Recover the amino acids of this structure.
């Protein structure tokens, strides 16, 4: 099996889909899904993009260029808070206000990790 094949199979199973269900969603045959997962064939570029979008992962993740699943549109919250102007009720937050928001988010995260999806 290839990295791509392993990841496609892993994501399909995580989403609790049978090969036939996945094939139906994408208008391909079940044997094509099997071939992709076994590394016998590779999906074309358009289908790869559709898989990445459906599973909300990056193409780099699917292709084994990174182990981070995050989609290209994902942002690290701390970077977003620290590096962007942020307003609350129309008022621009200073660095102290930004740090307080980040501290609250960190507290929530460590309090109950079950509220977050693992990627």
């Amino acid at each position: 099996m290839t990295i791509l094949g392993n990841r496609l199979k892993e994501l399909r199973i995580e989403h609790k889909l049978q090969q036939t269900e996945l094939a139906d969603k994408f208008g391909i045959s079940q044997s094509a899904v099997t071939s992709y997962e076994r590394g016998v064939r590779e999906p074309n570029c358009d289908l790869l993009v559709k898989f990445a979008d459906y599973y909300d992962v990056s193409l780099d993740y699917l292709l084994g260029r990174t182990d981070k699943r995050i989609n290209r549109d994902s942002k690290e919250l701390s970077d977003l808070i620290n590096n962007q102007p942020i307003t609350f009720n129309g008022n621009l937050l200073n660095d102290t206000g930004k740090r307080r928001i980040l501290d609250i988010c960190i507290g929530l995260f460590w309090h109950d990790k079950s509220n977050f999806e693992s990627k």
